[in-house]
Amino acid sequence: MADPPACCAACATCLLCPYSCRWITAKKEKRKGLRTTKCDCSWFLFLFCVFLFTLVWLYFAIIILNDFHNFNEFIFKQRKLWLDWSLVLLIATAVLISYSSVLLVLALCLQLCGQPLKLHWLHKILLILTALVVAAAFTGLGIKWAEEWKSARISLQATGPFLHIGVVGGMTLLAWPLASFVYRTRNTGLKVFLLLVYCTVMIALYLAPLGITSPCLMEENQLPPKPALVGHRGAPMLAPENTLMSLHKAVDCDVQVFETDVMVSADGVPFLMHDEELTRTTNVQAVFPERAALNSTAFNWTDLQQLDAGSWFLERRPFPTVQSLSAGDRQQATKQRIPSLGQALEAAKQSNISIMFDLRPENHSDYQSFVNATLAVILQSGIPLEQVLWLPDGFREQVKQQAPGVQQVYGRKRLQNEKEPLLHVNLPYQDMSSEEIRQYRQDNISVNLYVVNQPWLFSVLWCSGVSSVTTNACQVLKEMKQPIWLLPSSTYLMIWIVVDCVSFLTILWAFLLLKKCSHRRRPAESETDVLLTKINSLMQE
């Protein structure tokens, strides 16, 4: 196999060493008569597939970052170990994608330089391990976190147009090594097969925008109002969750609703707490070590007031934003205690924001008494009842009778034979499509979706017309003045046509140019072959 003129022996040697682990020069490699075999081609195809597989996983890893705090909480609940597992995920994924990318680039460059693709056995083992690790990651995702597949589908509404451009660009660049291989190989069947596959893929990509939809493909004057922000347990990236400090930080972020979770102590005092146990967000293990594993409702209010509900935030750093807190905020965090529902209602009333809460645990034997105690605190607080959003389904009719002014929020979609029309729904963002959001908006039903932390997701829901979103990142979403991107359909159509035309012309140029280069090499190769034949005959004589 002859070297193309543009590729010097030194460059070819530099490419051969890391790919084949053969520490000899390219000239010696050539003299040994090594060529790319069918087995080598199969390993190159496997390398290409592993690269794509890992690239898809990288995309998933970036998408699931929106919900990764839930995963961290799940691991803590199971193992009592707190760690930001998103860093582990991103580092591991970066290593895998970097390794497969480097190998693929080396292989493509070797092909352009006319060198054999002799992948070393160590690389083969590592590629197999990479494929197994990524396959295990996808399998685990499907078993334990299946809702993230819905998140991936939603993400395509934000990334679809740009992914299309990127994939078309990547496949266009692939035309160069493909053309080089086609003009070098003498296997006609393999040539035809590769060209048919490549042409089929490119035609599919050129027509892919016909199936790409996004709510952000609209005119600017059609953009719905910006969704209101609901602080998930306050502002948990800026202060310890479910504390008064978190509520005030949420107010500073212009949230309209403070979302929290309520439990009732053993002596009947409703207080703010998400977990059934106190171990994650308090120092209960230090203060009451023998009772640390008990349910939060087993403690009386006097005991709960002895617990530090803020220092864990600085020690465990549940979000990267904790590192950037000011000295004053750090000191304030260490002084936080578990607030009662009455204290939270008073703060919400003074800040003129609404409060929305779940009442936990719903399977408790004394749940009705929890409802009664909570209603009593609400009615005694003096807060306007329209500022209270009631989420629990248990004893909802009783709540409507005793506090008819409280806004009822349902954690389900409306039914076909709904007796009483729904006015407010609160659902995971994966459970509602853009079409359903638009329909609910037309029917004057307020839709709140949770938990939305990433700007790309907020942008998609904004374009869809959602009423509000529950978020951990109120300080980020507050600063967004418009969606990340907004394109009129006509503009996207023009971009689509231009990208496809440029891609087609580039591919055509690549094949024509390399065909011309291959014709120039053939006479020199023929003369070399004749000369080598004569020398061989003289040596035999």
CATH topology of the largest domain: the name is TIM Barrel
Radius of gyration (Å): 31 Å
Tell me the structural class: alpha/beta
Can you write the helix and strand succession as a string?
HHHHHHHHHEHEEHHHHHEHEHEEHEHEHH
Mean pLDDT: 90
Gap between N and C termini, in Å? 28 Å
Family: Belongs to the glycerophosphoryl diester phosphodiesterase family.
Membrane topology: Multi-pass membrane protein
Subcellular location: Membrane
GO molecular function: glycerophosphodiester phosphodiesterase activity
Describe the protein in words.
The protein has 541 residues and is an alpha/beta fold. It has 21 helices and nine strands. The protein is 56% helix and 8% strand. Strands 1, 2, 3, 4, 5, 6, 7, 8 and 9 form a nine-stranded mixed β-sheet that branches. α16 links the parallel β4 and β5. α1 crosses α5 and α3 runs antiparallel to α5. The N terminus is likely disordered. One of its GO terms (cellular component) is plasma membrane. InterPro entries: GP_PDE_dom (IPR030395), PLC-like_Pdiesterase_TIM-brl (IPR017946). Pfam families: GDPD. GO terms for molecular function: glycerophosphodiester phosphodiesterase activity.
Structural features:
541 residues, 21 helices, TIM Barrel, disordered N terminus, 9 strands, alpha/beta, single chain, 56% helix, 8% strand, elongated, 9-stranded mixed sheet, 3 domains
What is the topological layout?
Blueprint: H1 9-20, H2 26-31, H3 38-63, H4 68-79, H5 85-112, H6 121-144, H7 147-173, H8 175-184, H9 188-207, E1 228-232, H10 244-252, E2 257-264, E3 270-272, H11 284-287, H12 301-304, H13 311-316, H14 327-334, H15 341-351, E4 354-359, H16 367-381, E5 388-390, H17 396-402, E6 407-408, E7 424-428, H18 434-442, E8 446-450, H19 455-464, E9 468-471, H20 474-477, H21 489-540
Parallel strand pairs: 1-2, 1-9, 2-4, 4-5, 5-6, 7-8, 8-9
Antiparallel strand pairs: 2-3
Helix pairs in contact: 1-5, 3-5, 3-6, 5-8, 7-19, 7-21, 8-21, 10-15, 15-16
